[in-house]
C-alpha cells in the first residue's frame, strides 16, 4: 500500500472477519498489542492498525527483499559469512524481543524478512505471547521443523524455545534444509525429541560454527545459552562478518570482495565505491547497498595503507565511470538528464542473469517467445535515442486502437504466485511452479497450461479434474479479491474488445514478471510489455498491434488513469513530452535486460 500524501510504501496484512471465530479475534488482538509496542531495527515495524466491517488491517514496514525462505529457495544454502551476517542480526532482534518480555514462538526463515538494504526484520507475531510471571507456556504451536523438544513434550517452555529455533535457522542457512527435516511429520517430531540430526562437517562450517549449532540445539532448555552469551560467541565475534550484503545475494552467491575479510588481497580493490556515481548509475533493485558505509565499518588501517588503497580505488573508479559513460554515449549521445528516480541502469551481471533467467523465463528455449523480447527491444532502441523530448505536446493519439492491458494485479508470490486481470475481464494466475491457469473474459471457460506449455481447456468449471481443484480454487480467490477490492488500473470505457476470435484462441498469459522497488514489469504472450510505476501510479504499455499494421503501439496511462496511445514511429518522428520520454527510456532499458536474459545478442 502507498501513502498518497508522501509516497511511503507499506505492507498490509488483511484478515477477513468472516473467517474468524471469537478465539481468532482474541489472538489477533494479542498480536496487535504485542507488535505495536516493539520498536527495533531488526523487527518489522507496525505503523498502524484499523478495522472495518469486513476486515482487520495492519500497516507494516515494507520488506521488498522478501525473506530468508526465498533466499534459500533460490540459493539452496548460503556462504558462512552470509550466515554470520544474518545470524548476528537475528540474535540481536530476538534478544530485543525477549527484553520486552515476549516469546515469538514461530521463528523460521519465512518470518525473517529482508529490507531494501538487506537488513533482517523479524515479523509475524501471530503466535507471540508474554510469559505470565513465572508461568511458562505449554501450548504446542510453531512450525514443525523449528519446534523445540520441550514444546512437543508439552512441558513448560519459555524464551529457550526461540533459542532452539535460531539454531535450526542457522543450520538451514548453512546446509540448505532444517536439521530435523524428514518426509513425514511423525518422523520429524521423533528426530526432534531424540535430538537426532546430521552434524555439520568441516566442509560446510568452521569449528566455531559447528560449536554454536550444538550449543543452541541442546535438548535440555536449561543448557541452551542466553542470547547475550550467543552474541559473544566466537562465530559472531572472531570470524569475519560482512557489514552489508548486496541485493544480489537473494539470488546468487556474492562476489569474493563481499564475503572475504577486508585484509584479503582479492577484496581490497572493491571495498569502497564512489557513492555519487553509484547512486546515478547503479541504483536499482538489484544494486549493492551503500558500499561506502561498508568501508567505514571495516577495521582501521594505517594512514599510509588507507591512502594507497584510496588512490587505487579512485583510479579504478575513474576507469569504471569512463567505461559506463562511453557505453551510454554510444546509444544516447543527445540524451538530456532524466529524472533520477525513474531511469535506472540494470547491472550487467552474467551469472545473475543466468540464475534469474531460469526463474523469470524458463521457456527461453522457445524461439518464438525469445524473439518477442528481442524484437521489441530493437524497435525501441531504434527510436528512443533519436526521439525529441522537449516538446510541449505529444503527437496525435491513436483513437481506433486500444490495446489489451493489465488492469489489476496481486502479488502473492510468497505463497502462490501472481494474479492479474486484463482489460477484457479475463483473469490469470502465474504460479510459482510456472504453471498457469486462466478464466476467459466471460468467466466461463478455464484454461490450464503446464510447465511444458501443454494447454488444456475446460468449458465448465466442473470439468476441471481433481488434481487441479486447488489451483482452480486459488483462481477463484484471486478473481474475487481483485473484483471486490482493487480499482481498475486504467479507463476501461475506452477499451473496445477485438472482433470475435476463434474458439481456439487462448487467453493471453503472463510470460514473466519482475517487481523492483520502483515498478512492476509484466510481459505477456500477446506480445505485450507493461510497466507500472509505484511512485505516481503511471503505466506504460508496449504492444504489437496487427490491426494498424504500423508496428508497436505505446500506451501511456497517466496519474488520472487516462490512457493515450501513440505509434512508436510517430514518437520517433515528432517527439514527445519529457514525462513520456523518461518513462519510455526506462521501458527501453527493461526490454534490453529481458532480451539479454533470453541469451540473445543485441545488435
UniProtKB/TrEMBL annotation:
> Region Disordered: what ranges?
297-332
Q: So what EC number does this one have?
A: 2.7.11.21
Q: Respond yes or no to whether keyword ATP-binding is given for this record.
A: yes
Gene Ontology CC: one annotated term: centrosome
Provide the alphabetized UniProt keywords.
ATP-binding, Kinase, Nucleotide-binding, Repeat, Serine/threonine-protein kinase, Transferase
The record, for InterPro entries, names: Kinase-like_dom_sf, POLO_box_1, POLO_box_2, POLO_box_dom, POLO_box_dom_sf, Prot_kinase_dom, Ser/Thr_kinase_AS
Record-linked CDD domains? POLO_box_1, POLO_box_2
Specify the domain of life of the species encoding this protein: Eukaryota
Instruction: Tell me which residues make up the POLO box domain.
Output: 405-484, 509-596
Q: What class of enzyme is it?
A: transferase
> What Gene3D superfamilies does this protein's entry cite?
POLO box domain, Transferase(Phosphotransferase) domain 1
| Domain Protein kinase positions | 1-236
UniProt lists compositionally biased (Low complexity) regions at 297-323
Catalytic activity, reaction form: L-seryl-[protein] + ATP = O-phospho-L-seryl-[protein] + ADP + H(+); L-threonyl-[protein] + ATP = O-phospho-L-threonyl-[protein] + ADP + H(+)
Asked whether the keyword Transport is assigned, the reply is no
Q: A GO molecular-function term, please?
A: ATP binding
Q: Per the UniProt entry, what are the Gene Ontology biological process annotations, in alphabetical order?
A: mitotic spindle organization
Descriptive protein name:
polo kinase
